[in-house]
Amino acid sequence: MGNAKQSAYYYQSAWGYDLIAYAGPETGVRDRASYVLQQGKIRLVLTTAMSPDSEISKHVLQHGDGVKVLALWVDDARASFEATTKRGAKAVMEPTVLKDAFGEVVVSAIQTYGETIHKFVERRNYTGSFLPGYVPKKSLFTVKGVGLKHVDHCVGNVELGRMNEWVKFYEEVMGFKLLLTFDDKDISTEYSALMSKVVSNGNGYIKFPINEPAEGKKKSQIEEYIEFYKGAGCQHIAVATDDIIATVTELRNRGVEFLYVPDNYYDEVWDRVGKINEDVNAIRRLNILVDRDDEGYLLQLFTKPVQDRPTVFYEIIQRCGAKSFGKGNFKALFESIEREQDLRGNL
Ligand code: FE2
Known about the structure:
Elements: H1 4-13, E1 18-23, E2 32-39, E3 42-49, H2 55-63, E4 69-73, H3 77-86, E5 91-100, E6 103-111, E7 117-122, E8 135-136, E9 148-157, H4 163-173, E10 177-182, H5 184-187, E11 194-200, E12 207-213, H6 221-229, E13 233-241, H7 244-253, H8 265-273, H9 280-285, E14 289-293, E15 296-302, E16 313-320, H10 330-343
Parallel strand pairs: 4-7, 9-12, 13-16
Antiparallel strand pairs: 1-2, 1-8, 2-3, 5-6, 6-7, 9-13, 10-11, 11-12, 14-15, 15-16
Bound molecules: fe (ii) ion.
């Protein structure tokens, strides 16, 4: 990102992430500064380069602030690298052993959509704060968490016609399974059509929906993303909470901007989803979306993009049995996104 130091402050003050570790010039890393933020099991690493000829600076110039690395915790980073590259993955980093006084971590990496990469991180022999090379660093003020627990899913936007190719990559190279398919009949509004398939690993902990634009009357929200991100990339990260009312109340109080859902959404939503064990007035007041599937219900809400380019955003999600992705909300959600796209002059 352009300014990791200031972004780290935003994630601490607005989102309630604790600063836990740092690497940079003061710790002997000459070319960059990285801030590690943690809330629950979620870890974000924000990095800015020190010079314009760095790969990181080139990435920021091209894509703006964005998600470069989706790191995956593995038992054996060498085996993950060998298996995936043998099955066709493009190698980005050969297995590398990082060591310090707290033990060792093995890291390797492969390419996924756009310039995004997956890092495989094997940390069973490590007890330090984050990774070798990082020093523990604490927030300079009292950070109040907002109840975020873990990453629920990470969504990728890919170019027109390339969704199936990336689904095949996750199936054949990564050994994931296709979980769900949404076609343009499920998720087209008057303008903003898209198609989506969700792939998941064996235990279901990792879920990667992959979107591609579909033909619509005007520009798809996925096309807008790709135009401004300058290619395929991570569209949103969904973070889970056990109490979305408390989480969203705090985030709104701290100035985090969410998509607007019109009041008439709530005129029919309770007929659609039935009874839920939540304060329905608070849900309406906070503009939270509700959906139900065969296994239960879910509550969700989407932020506006968290940088000036209309690219990466976050989803807050509370699952009460439901394992799906809020299909019943797609129409209301996409109409809301289109209102924003229209305001930006990109519809
Ligand atoms: Fe999502």
